[in-house]
Prior knowledge:
The protein is mostly beta strands. The chain has three domains: about 5-75, no CATH class; about 100-145, no CATH class; about 155-225, no CATH class. It contains two helices and 13 strands; from the N terminus they run H-E-E-E-E-E-E-E-E-E-E-H-E-E-E.
Amino acid sequence: xxxxxxxxxxxxxRALMEAxxxxxxxxxxxxxxxxxxxxxxxxxxxxxxxQLPLRLIATADAEARSIEAVRRDREAYxxxxxxxxxxxxxxxxxxxxxxxxxxxxxxxxxxxPAHRPLIAAHAVPxxxxxxxxxxxxxxxxxxxxxxxxxxxxxxxAADLYAGPTSRFDLGNxxxxxxxxxxxxxxxxxxxxxxxxxxxxxxxxxxxxxxLAKRRRTGNRRHECxxxx
Length: 228
């Protein structure tokens, strides 16, 4: 059931008032001749010079009629409508084509199977999960796997010159603009555990660079040093 926002607010306030007023209840007995009274009827109790309207909620017939009732206030049903609120249609979220990179990298960790390529994907907004399909032709694709982690993709903002391999490069600085996310500095021991590994695709291969120190210089720009 759909109602206007003004009517919905009035019904909510009425329900709150009914719950508040209904804290007061009464139980009493009447003579069997009061058969005309049924649940949902409203009666007035004259008690201590007070006129209390009560709504019957249950009756039980025996030698005397047992009545259960709750307090009722007529003003709770005469509330004005709520304040008008501007309505707007919700916009459907459109997911565009993601940025995808296939990486043929060496085995980075022991729990990673060898000779298996990696895939990285990035999209804004992130749909929550990506599906990977495969097929030997351009049709008949079958689901291979799914993943829900968004990759941190970026582009080089400055040239990265050749440097030493298998040891720290103290001269080069890696300047990168990330699409989303951030980078963090790590200790040398953490770096030796394959942390902060950034693959840089080059033609048919990929250069694997690790960074120990990073400094944020812009909204999405990071300067990374102490490279390995």
